[in-house]
Each structure stands twice: as C-alpha cells, then as structure tokens.
Design a protein that fits this description.
The protein is α+β, with helices and mostly antiparallel strands. It has a single domain, classed as Extracellular Endonuclease, Chain A (3-Layer(aba) Sandwich), CATH 3.40.570.10. The protein is globular and about 55 Å long. It contains seven helices and 13 strands. Strand 2 and strand 3 form a beta hairpin. Keywords: Metal-binding. InterPro entries: DNA/RNA_non-sp_Endonuclease_sf (IPR044929), Endo_G_ENPP1-like_dom (IPR001604), ENPP1-3/EXOG-like_nuc-like (IPR020821), His-Me_finger_sf (IPR044925), Non-specific_endonuclease (IPR040255). This is DNA/RNA non-specific endonuclease. One of its GO terms (molecular function) is hydrolase activity.
C-alpha cells in the first residue's frame, strides 16, 4: 500500500526561492472536469517530484508538472509496476483494460518521464520517485514510432548544456492536447467510446542566471500514425481547429519547437509566466545530430557526455 502522505508533489519554489514557477491554470470548465482526488482539496494528484491534474471525462491528464534536479539523479532499475491510483475512482482512470484492448497497438506513454523525477538524496528516494511514474494517471496512449529520442532528451539537453553549473534545476510541464475533435479508438473499452489524443506538448522552464526565468515549448503529433495503423475510426467530419494549415505539421510524429502561445491556444491552459525565448509563429522541426567521437573533444563537456546536439533548438 502506497504511503501517499510522502508524495510531496511539484514545488513552485524548486528552481529558486526568488523565482517561483506556478502550476498551469485551468479554464473553469477544465477545473470542473477534474477527477476528485481523495485528500486533495484542489483535486491535484501529488506524487514524488511531480503532480498532475486528471480529466475525469477523458481519463488523461490536462497537465503533468515535474521538478528535475540533475545533481541528485540516481541510476536505479526499472520496475514497470503499473497500477491505478487508489485515491481516484477507477472509473476516471484508464488501466490495463485500455492497453490490452483489441487494436491497442500503442505504448503506455509516460507524461512525467521516469528519469525526470528519478532523483533524491539517496538511491532509495530516487527509486521511490521513479516508481510513482507508473501510475496509470501518468500515462497516455502513444505509438512506439513517435520521435522519442528528441522528445525524451530535450530536458537533459537544456539541463546539461544551457543551465549554469551551479543551478541545474528545471521544471517541466507536459501533457496531451485534449481536443473535443480527437479521433475515436476503434475498440470500445468497458463499453465506452474512447477518444485518443493526437498531440502532445512540453514546456521547459529554467534560469540561466538566477535572475530571470525562461521558457521554451514543444509539440509532437501522432495522428497519421494512429490512422495508418487503423487504430482510430476514419474521419467523418472536418476538424476545424486542426485542419488549418498552421497545425498540420504536428500530425507527422516529429518534434517541433513552437511559441508558448500556440500551446496555450491548443490546450486552453495558462502556462507559468517566464521570458519566451522562441518567438517565431512558424514551428521549427527539431533535428538530432550525433556528435562525432573526435569532435567531442572540442564540444562542451555536457554535450560530449550525452553524445548528441540539437543544432536548431532555440534556447
């Protein structure tokens, strides 16, 4: 039995006591749609080093907020101990009944990455934090072909190459775009029609000088992958929001850097305030480049350690 009292959750003062990073703000209708969480007056589900807001109508999070401390990262073994959160009604969470359903050809996509929160003063603390990422509340169906490498490495890249050596702390906000026009899964689950998110977003907040906060945003899509695998039903109506030329890029399972305003427009969330670094209305597809072994000697130590760079990332 989990000791939820030890789940401190996301900290707004994590980066610096003088630079608080608030949680995303929900619209009134989103707030009313939050799944009730036992013991939480604001219906936020707190885990170790991260928190989330779960939509009861969709069974997926509106957002997941995580604190990452690279200095305290520990290597631990992976458990894969997926389970539902007992503080939340099972009817508001999708579990194995979704991921083992017919045509469920997708992964349990972590919103808060296991490695992101896998830190603490001791290995035991890091292992406990990593284990809490295996609640189904933190999972959203994602096709395995998604461009996970860049998506997964963004935080580490910013953490190890852009933050100053004495301040290796960042806050990351992630989630699916829960759009009313999301396509419907071809298999009913527990007798219910289920809409699958096609877009995922990530916002990284950090500081370079301990005087100002900066933020960068990213989007990734999987609509074409879902439709190609015939996991979702064919379109019957034209999607007004995503059919615009502006958002068509995000169907192709690549990772794009975008304006924070684009993410706010899609999610209807108000994201924590910070200085926007990327201010181009045109999304930029990110490219991951392996660092040549000989070239590593001439690169910054952190890039050499990671073995890659993202040359067109604006931070």
């Amino acid at each position: 039995m989990a000791n939820f009292k030890n789940y401190g959750g996301y900290s707004t003062s994590f980066i610096h006591s003088a630079l608080p990073v608030s949680l995303p703000l929900l619209q009134a209708e989103q707030q009313a749609d939050l799944a009730p969480v036992e013991g939480s007056p604001n219906n936020l589900a707190h885990y170790i080093n991260y928190s989330l807001a779960l939509s009861q109508s969709r069974g997926f999070p509106y957002f997941v907020a995580a604190n990452i401390d690279g200095r305290l990262f520990k290597k631990v073994s992976r458990t894969d101990n997926w389970r539902k959160d007992s503080r939340i009604s099972a009817v508001h969470q999708w579990g194995e009944e979704l991921y083992k359903a017919r045509k469920s050809d997708f992964d349990k996509g972590h919103m808060a990455k296991r490695e992101d929160v896998q830190w603490g003063q001791t290995v035991l603390e890091a292992r406990a934090a990593a284990d809490t990422t295996f609640y189904f509340t933190n999972a959203v169906p994602q096709r395995a072909e998604l461009n996970q490498q860049i998506w997964a490495d963004l935080e580490n890249y910013i953490l190890h190459t852009e933050s100053v050596p004495n301040n290796l702390r960042i806050s990351v906000f992630t989630g699916p775009v829960l759009c009313p026009s999301d396509p419907v899964f071809v298999t009913k689950v527990l007798g219910k029609a289920l809409q699958l998110p096609t877009l995922f977003w990530k916002v990284v907040v950090f500081t370079k000088d301990e005087e100002k906060l900066y933020r960068v945003g990213f989007l990734m899509g999987q609509e074409q992958l879902l439709r190609k695998a015939k996991i979702v039903k064919p379109k019957t109506v034209k999607i007004k929001v995503l059919a615009t030329e502006r958002f068509m890029e995000f169907e192709d399972a690549e990772t794009y850097q975008v304006n924070i305003g684009t993410i706010e427009e899609l999610t209807k969330l108000i994201l924590p305030a910070a200085q926007d670094i990327y201010q181009d209305d045109r999304p930029t597809k990110l490219v991951l480049e392996e660092v040549d072994l000989n070239a590593r000697l001439a690169t910054p130590e952190a890039i050499a350690e990671l073995g890659y760079r993202i040359p067109n990332l604006v931070i």
